[in-house]
Amino acid sequence: MIERQLQPLLHELVGVVFAPTSALGDATGQIRPSGVQGVFHADARVLSRAELRVDERELEGLARGDDGPHGAHFVGLARWLGDPAPDPTVRVDRLRRATRNGLTEELRIVSTATIGVRASVSVDLGCDLAPIEVVKSGGATDALTATTGQPGTLTWAGSGITVTVTAPGADVLADGERATAPRLAWAVDLPPAGETVLRWQLTVDDPRAVVVGPAGEPEWSRPEVTADDRRLIRLLDRSLDDLRGLRLAETGAPGDVFLGAGVPWFLTLFGRDSLWAARMMLPLGTDLAAGTLRVLARRQGTRIDPTTGEAPGKILHELRRHAFALPDNGLRLPPAYYGTVDATMLWVNLLHDAWRWGMPAEQVEPLLPHLEAALRWIGEHADPDGDGLVEYVDTTGHGLSNQGWKDSGDAVRFHDGSLATAPIVLAEVQGYAHEAAVNGAALLDAFGRPGADRWREHAAALVGRFRKSFWVDGRHGPQPALALDRDKRPVDSLTSNIGHLLGTGLLDRDEEAQVAHLLTTDTMAAGFGLRTMSSDDAGFSPLSYHCGSIWTHDTAIVLGGLARAGHREAALGLADGLLSAAEAFDYRMPELYGGDDRAQVNRPVPYPASCRPQAWAAAGTVLLLQAATGLYPDVPGGTVRLAPLAGAEFGAVAVDGLRVADTPVHVTVDRTGEATVSNLPT
């Protein structure tokens, strides 16, 4: 039997992150040379092993927890040491903290014994500099040979990266067999009730990295929240800590900050993910949106290149230091890859929404030529067959076969489970395109630039085409299809994609009400959030990546659309699903999790390869907070609408520190749903 090379699981691992560095280890604190465990820096595994032993024995793990926004704290016992009594008298606290260019560990050995304690403490290390795509595919790499220099120092080098470990007071063993498995060793001699602290530090020099950690504090506010449902407070605190750790900038442009997509696979610039996360974060300020828009504008397409998917006006999908290749499935993406059908519209919509939240005109105006280029891409390149609908197809044979947010190869399925054939016309992308045309026209008018009428006409025509082409009969009444296939046949499965149409203007009020009804059926909403595919569809599986699982950001986006459109009960159901899932995941929301029925499984089942933390999953909490307060500003128009989700069912909520036009505002919603806002800019 041929043994499969499988993507490693990571749902039980404990992560720390301070982008571009992240680390994953087991629940006891060990980083073992297997699977996806290790320390990563900008797409390379810079440490593949860090195993702690006392007297050549592993500690018994007792507890783990957070240590600030970038750290983890592990507690272990050495019960063979100290007093011969039932109570343990020697414990080791292992504090691991990610830094922008590496990692630190502090080992606190504490004895409450009445006798002295002597022990040897060691940390076995390894480095393979494996590219992230090799790790993701389950591939094996050889450990590199370490060199020694100054006392207490180890160094590895390769692929333009230099990795250095320093351990004050430690003996370094790196000869012979230990050349590829070097050891840091300390002799510990504690008096009765004594303690000591041992430290080691990892530093990475990586001049070829395409992303760096930006200086300074986060660009967004950190609001003070009181809420009857305290799960919302705990989720927001954890999410903002995670987002702090995911901040990145391009090498050479450290002032323009964006959010890396997620740990460990996608800690880099992703057009779609970074744009959605910045859009969700607008209630906390527009600076993150401005940085994200500028970074992507600098890399906006200027030419036709089938190899990379680039086209004039198109927004980038993904940026890596080198090609990203998964040989088992034939995927091979160039370092700068444009294979996305939706990022360009999302760029336009983020610019518009940031303007509505008060992004200054002097920041908007330099981006207007990029807006016009993006709109031209929608009109000239996004519709190659000229039928007025946006579509995609991978012409290279080694790019992403699906180029919407559900980008796995089996994501677009008919109700009977069969796969759709490209070119594919996704439902939600038509919504994004309609919204971008309307929003682009508004910006062009506001800043005195020509062409707005063309885009309003484009949007109006798209409404008719969508209504004619996408609506099909389903078990619960009429429904928008997931997509159209190569032959323009409706892909008739019921999916969460249709929830993204809410608020885009593509649907009328009755159609939005029907979509809200479809999304609240048990087939879609019986889990801890919104399933990506109806349980009635043949392709459904609760642990399918895009055909039955629940994605945190997807649920948040649909929840926000439902709340804004006034479908309160539907939005409340999804909010409860997210908050219940948050409890189960210690308030660090994963990228996705299982779509099992809550009546059958009383806690969400982890998706075993899910990124965690992940930018748009964490940012979805801010979208939930916005829905709870119901704050919808239009700074250029001089208006603010209040339509809170909080109230009788959700409970009271008060938020101090939401930002409108860079002004902190206070929103209070009482238990009756009565909302007030104060300190609005004038």
Automatic annotation (TrEMBL):
Domain Putative glycogen debranching enzyme N-terminal: 20-200
Domain of life: Bacteria
Pfam families cross-referenced by the UniProt entry: GDE_N_bis, MGH1-like_GH
UniProt cross-references to InterPro entries, sorted A to Z: 6-hairpin_glycosidase_sf (IPR008928), 6hp_glycosidase-like_sf (IPR012341), GDE_N_bis (IPR032856), MGH1-like_GH (IPR054491)
Ranges of residues in domain Mannosylglycerate hydrolase MGH1-like glycoside hydrolase: 340-583
GO biological processes: carbohydrate metabolic process
Name under which the protein is recorded: Amylo-alpha-1,6-glucosidase
Organism per entry: Micromonospora arida
